[in-house]
Structure formats: structure tokens, C-alpha cells
Amino acid sequence: MLESKYQMLSRFARIFLAVGLLVALWGLSTARRPDGQVWVHPLDTHPGPVRILRFYASVGILTPGQTAQLCYSVENARLVRISPMQSAWPAQDRCFDVVPEHTTHYTLLAEGFDGTVAVRSFTLAVQGPPATRPNGIQYAVRRRITTRTHSPTSS
Fold first, then answer.
1. Buried residues in 76-113 as b, exposed as e (16+ CB within 10 A)
2. Coil, helix or strand at residue 29
């Protein structure tokens, strides 16, 4: 009798664990990340190839010290890198601030779950500040004429 209670308790624990696992997987399949992607893809679906949907800067030309937003959007990416920076997050829509000191060439590299790679790049121009003119200060040059008189007593 003691053995049968242990077996029954063991069977109940396994059933409870299996039901708990199924509920957890169902919850993960319906939950979404902040960027809108699902946490777990169902087994019967295969994500498509990696795609870069957008990669751009909020402005075309900057002056040194000015801020621009770099924005990108990728689909089916396992890994995303933006050079000259190190890494980024695989996201549907993401923007962040950059303050380049000189003209910079940015390259987005996205690697898919199947090993394929997509690349897109652009150049963000940084121009020096415009030449400044004096603000209304004018200089006058006056010619000074000096005459020397010569007297006979001084020679």
C-alpha cells in the first residue's frame, strides 16, 4: 500500500509539471516583446530571411557638436551591428542619438537565424561652422599729413 501511494504521488507530480510547462509555453507564445516580436516562434513556422526595412539619419548634414538620430528597423534578425559602433538590438523600430565630430560612414549589418546577412549603409556629413563676419564693426583709416617747417635759425 505504501508503494502505491508513492507511485500515485509521483504520477500526480509529473502530470502537474507537464500541465505547468504547457501553460508556460502557451503564455510565452502569446506574450510579445516591447518591439512587437513574439518571444517563442511556434515549431511549425520558420522565420523568413533577414531584411533591413529602414536605416537612416534624421538629418542630412550636421555641424560639429550637433545631434542626429540614427534609426533602423530589421526583420528576422538574430544579430545586428552598426559600425563604427559595436552592436545594436534586433528591433522592429529603434532610434538613438549620435553626435559625430566629423563626416561618418555608418553601416548596418543584420544576420538572420538561417545565417544570411543583409547590409545597408549611408554617410552622415559634418561640415564646419559657417564663416562669421564681423557684426557691424567698421574701421576707418585716416591719413595723417605732417608738414615740416624749416626755419633759418634752426640750421
1. bbebbebeeeeebebbbebeeebebeeebebebbbbbe
2. helix
Query: Edge-to-edge strands of the sheet including 68-75?
Result: 51-57, 68-75, 94-98
> Which position has the grid cell 605732417?
146
Nearest CA among 114, 116, 111, 118 for reference residue 55:
118
Find out whether 105 and 121 touch, Cβ atoms under 8 Å.
yes
pLDDT at 9 (0 to 100): 81
β-pair type (94-98, 51-57): unpaired
Contacts (Cβ under 8 Å, ≥6 apart) of 86: none
Record the pTM.
Answer: 0.55
Q: Which three cell numbers stand for residue 135?
A: 557684426
What are the pLDDT digits (tens) for 70-115? 999 998 888 899 998 866 777 778 898 999 989 999 999 999 888 8
Q: Identify the CATH homologous superfamily for domain 51-126.
A: SoxY domain (2.60.40.2470)
Give the residue extent of every domain in the chain. Answer: 51-126
| 89 Cβ contact partners less than 8 Å away, ≥ 6 residues apart | 80
* Residue in 54, 57, 55, 52 with CA at minimum distance from that of residue 99: 57
The set of cell numbers assigned to 6 is 508513492
